[in-house]
Design goal:
With about 300 residues, the protein is of the alpha/beta class. About 30% of the residues lie in helices and about 15% in strands. It has two domains: about 110 residues, Rossmann fold (3-Layer(aba) Sandwich); about 180 residues, NAD(P)-binding Rossmann-like Domain (Rossmann fold), CATH 3.40.50.
Length: about 300
């Protein structure tokens, strides 16, 4: 591949201003631009949030997210367009966000924040609050995201179990299950954390059977993709008291529709798909792009290559 230009597409502005990435990549040996409605062709690399039909005219597309399920993989392969993603940069932010969710539920922080707005000086009933130390967390997906969660949960004294396709052991998990044993894995866990990619195999993985296997004092945390969870089954589980609550960063439809009952549920924490973000996110993306520019010029395989 002959690389002649890097185009920072304006779709990245859902996360950060394109200009900050252009500046971060200003040391590249090729021009870095962010034009409106760019005309793309061979030799162009595009850094983007999501796909556009015109990207199939470029030579290389880099997705600033780990998830690339929106990209038409077969079309990229047929067109000979290289696609890379940003897996590997989210472990710290995701891990800390998940800890924040779990601490909020354990210590009642979300409840007290709501009462603060209402100027209510009211404590939770004795026996409601707990600590994370000794509580079990089941991390479903032990890649970069799940490993970031497992490492931090273990550091707080939590009993970590995991689920991964291979069933291979993990340094921060006491036991690792395969997906066919998901019900057994979530049984007895205070928290079930979803940190796996959305694929044909994982779509709707968490449904009625999973919630039935969870305890009524358990919480679901989803920092994966909304499609991994049957959202109707989740709402039913919350309404029926089958689980205690949920922290949700991703949804079947985004933005979450105003009419969704999840907005008004006091036992649900909703965040707008931000669990992997930080103020240095553009720098982490720039590092990946810069690394692959060097690899292209050296004739080496690209990091995080999808197609």
């Amino acid at each position: 591949m002959e690389l002649e230009r890097v185009v920072v597409h304006d779709s990245v502005d859902i996360v950060f201003d394109p200009g900050v990435l252009v500046e971060a990549l200003s040391d590249l040996p090729v021009p870095v631009e962010s034009p409106e409605n760019p005309t793309l062709g061979p030799g162009d690399a595009v850094v983007a949030f999501g796909p556009r039909p015109s990207f199939l005219d470029a030579s290389w597309v880099h997705c600033i997210r780990a998830g690339y399920d929106e990209f038409p993989i077969d079309e990229y392969a047929d067109a000979g367009v290289v696609l890379t993603n940003s897996t590997g940069i989210h472990g710290t932010a995701i891990g800390e966000t998940v800890l924040g969710y779990m601490l909020s539920f354990a210590r009642g922080l979300h409840t007290y924040r709501d009462r603060q707005r209402a100027r209510e000086w009211e404590r939770e009933p004795y026996g409601t609050l707990f600590t994370l130390d000794g509580e079990r967390v089941c991390v479903v997906g032990l890649g970069t995201l799940g490993s970031g969660v497992a490492e931090r949960a273990a550091a707080l004294g939590m009993d970590v179990v995991g689920v991964r396709q291979s069933g291979a052991s993990h340094e921060h998990a006491r036991r690792v299950y395969t997906p066919d044993a998901l019900s057994a894995a979530v049984s007895g866990a205070r928290f079930v954390v979803l940190a796996l990619p959305l694929t044909a195999e994982t779509e709707g993985l968490v449904s009625h059977a999973t919630f039935e296997a969870m305890d009524d004092e358990s919480y679901l945390v989803n920092v994966a993709r909304g499609g991994v969870v049957d959202q109707a089954a989740l709402v039913a589980a919350l309404d029926d008291g089958a689980i205690a609550g949920a922290a949700l960063d991703v949804f079947e439809r985004e933005p979450l529709p105003e009419e969704s009952p999840l907005w008004a549920d006091d036992d649900v924490v909703v965040t707008p798909h931000t669990s992997g973000l930080s103020r240095r996110y553009h720098e982490d993306v720039a590092t990946l792009v810069r690394t692959n520019v060097r690899r292209i010029r050296a004739g080496d395989d690209l990091t995080n290559r999808v197609v």
